[in-house]
Predict the structure.
Amino acid sequence: MKPIALFGGTFDPVHYGHLGLARTAFAQLELQKILVLPAGNPYQKGGLPLASADHRRIMLRLAFQGDFQVLVDERELWRTGATYTFDTLFELRTEIGADASLVWLIGSDAFSRLDTWHRWRELFGLTHFAVIDRSTHKLATAHCSSEFLQEVEPRFAGLLDTQMSPSGAVVFLETSPPPVSSTEIRERTARGESIRGLTPDAVCDYIERHKLYLIKE
Ligand code: ATP
């Protein structure tokens, strides 16, 4: 059973760290496809995204163009109110069926805060998690709550265990993507510095053409 991966984020904007995560996951988990899910109103991030839903979705399409196994799924972008991963996963599970393997791709920074997500324990009944270490934010279990560790540690498994069951395992991808962040791109753009090499040229050109991220946060 080849898993379907789900990759949520704000993508404000998408960058080579995101592309690297998707490529690593594709190779190491022997995926069927990846659905990229840009968030509408990511309540976890405090403020609203700086670029509109439309800009973020177009930049994602530019970044993944030609990659036929990666599809941008816009369902969260147009949802009103906070974007809850639980709702998205529940909906996808209903569409895809109870037996298919789903894997949520996530960086170590976001995973270590999973216990702040809406209905977080129930997420394990809907998906596996594949965690990738961000070189800037290694998964430091010392910073995780004991409640979180008690839930996740018994779930640690080998990469290909994600093919044996529909949900419930936590696996660790083996290479770290480049240490880029959307924050770095926004800050560099606001300072008038180049962002070439941090995200594909088509995205750099789009940011320039539409004068995105020129205002300091
Ligand atoms: P920001 O700087 O605005 O917080 P970000 O660069 O972390 O944004 P998000 O859209 O929030 O980008 O990230 C979506 C997902 O991708 C998260 O799970 C995050 O941990 C992961 N991710 C982002 N950048 C990297 C990277 N360089 N390496 C590995 N994972 C990453």
User: Anything to note?
Assistant: The CA atoms of residues 40 and 78 lie 6 Å apart. The longest strand covers residues 4-9. The domain at 4-177 is CATH 3.40.50.620 (Rossmann fold). The pocket of adenosine-5'-triphosphate is lined by residues 9-12, 17-18, 21, 106-107, 109-110, 132, 134, 177, 179-183 (CB under 6 Å).
